[in-house]
Amino acid sequence: MGCLIAGAALAADDWTKSRWGPDDEIGAANNLSPEKVLEAAQLIKTGKTYPLGIEINSKTPAYAPRGFKIYVVQPGQAQGGSLGPTKTTYNDDIIEGWLGIGSQIDGLGHIGIDGTYYNGHQAKDFAAMTGLTKLGIEKVPPITTRGVLLDMAAHYGTDIVKEGTAFNKAEIDEVAKKQGVEIRKGDVVLFNTGWISLIGKDDKRYSSGEPGLGREGARYLAEKGVVAIGADSWALEAIPFEEGAGVFEVHQILLPQNGVYILENMNTAELAKDKAYEFMFVLGQPRYTGAVQAIINPVAIR
């Protein structure tokens, strides 16, 4: 894993201690509040809703070896079997797959630094084959708050931002100013890059790199107190990684060091098309006990 970060990040002897106390398991979700919900509600002017999740199937490209299959079955109904005098029949489904595929939230138990995770939890103490005993996805409260979209594709004047392009403080501030939005404590920030449009058209390019958040940008947004950061790409951060960066170091800055959630493969195209730069963001993720991640379909409302 990558090294500890100097400068604006928490000191090496501090990042393992949550600012919300030794029992904290939800990180930046502590910045959510009824006031943020009311603030977000004030942004609803048209009632239009935007599904931010993409469809997921066996062909959805994913970080190897992740995959996904669905099986539809009719238990006990072979040779015309049915239930009761009204002959009720039904379909059920079975999923065989990974939770870190398609549109997803990375929980705080996902990424660590040399076996140490958010709030100092050691992998050997909480990561069991049968599920996490700390930092499970079921601990995450409903994320209902103000959402901000930063349209990086429009900023760079392209349909698809080039892989490896890193968004740091200068780019974030410039786009926010251009769009007339301010990033505030308790917000969810999403980047639109056009990258997700490659799915089904050029899966090889989609999976081999991406534009995204840089290390300085990650520290900057974490300092602002945002709850989650997402993008229309498979790993949020710039790949190829920035010069001198460790492997998935942006993930390390956000998840273990600052408790900020990561949202991947967010479908931001319609928000960008409508110039919907501020909106109400609503997410109630599946509460799989002990899960690391979850497949999600957040909704933006404006």
Write up what this structure looks like:
By secondary structure, the protein is an alpha/beta fold. It has helices spanning about 35-40, 125, 150-155, 170-180, 205-210, 215-225, 250-260, 270-275; strands spanning about 50, 70-75, 90-95, 105, 125-130, 130, 145-150, 165, 190, 210-215, 230, 260-265, 280-285, 295, 300.
pLDDT under 50 segments (min length 5)? 1-12
For the sheet with most strands, the description reads:
9 strands, mixed
Arithmetic mean pLDDT:
95
- Count the strands? 15
Return the structural class: alpha/beta
Give the assembly state of these chains. Answer: single chain
Instruction: Note the run of SSEs as H and E.
Output: HEEEEHEEEHEHEHEHEHEHEEE
Short summary:
The protein is of the alpha/beta class and 302 residues long. The chain has helices at residues 34-41, 123-126, 152-156, 169-179, 203-208, 215-223, 249-258, 269-273, and strands spanning 49-51, 68-73, 92-97, 104-106, 127-128, 131-132, 143-151, 166-167, 188-192, 212-213, 228-231, 261-264, 278-283, 293-295, 299-301. 19% of the residues lie in helices and 20% in strands.
Features:
8 helices; 19% helix; 302 residues; alpha/beta; two-stranded antiparallel sheet; disordered N terminus; single chain
